[in-house]
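Q: How would the structure tokens look for this protein?
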Amino acid sequence: MDLTQGTTEEKNKRAKKMMLWFAIISLIMSFAAWTSAFIVSSSRPDWLKDFQLPSAFIISTVIIILSSISFILAKRALKVNKTKATTLWLLTTLVLGIIFIYNQFDGFQQIINLGYNFTGPTSNVTMSYIYLIAMVHILHVVMGLICLLVVIYNHFKQKYTTTNMLGFELASTFWHFIDILWIYLFLFLYFVR
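A: Here is the predicted structure in token form.
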């Protein structure tokens, strides 16, 4: 298929989707670098081998999976023109995203309660990596929430239809990406010592 063919609107849609995928690939490379550095650093003598991830991280993993499911249900409702159901599922996704971030900060508090801060004399390189990886992911969840707020606003303005869902689809793709990314990060931090 020739990417230069089609109407201006079709080209614009393809360009926006391609830009999102370039951003996602860039993020994958960044997190791959941080997790690689985590593996390399694990040979240090001061590396914690027996740490436990905070229970709040487990809860937040379940919550972000539920948020992806609610976003899928919102998209399905929109496709069959069920406005109220779309609104309900979008708002559910937003609330779950906020609860995810709350649980992440609760996880940081659990780490602090164990005696490990991000920096300073009570820090540890292992926990500093966990802070860094989780905090950068939280920033991307915040970006996802901003995108979601734009989608909710546009939904209330009735911008989306069964045939015009570009902004909705872009936000959905990004949201599912940060969901999958967290699952990867959680499993990585859980199993890699």
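The chain has a mean pLDDT of 92.

The longest helix spans residues 8-41.

Upvote if useful.
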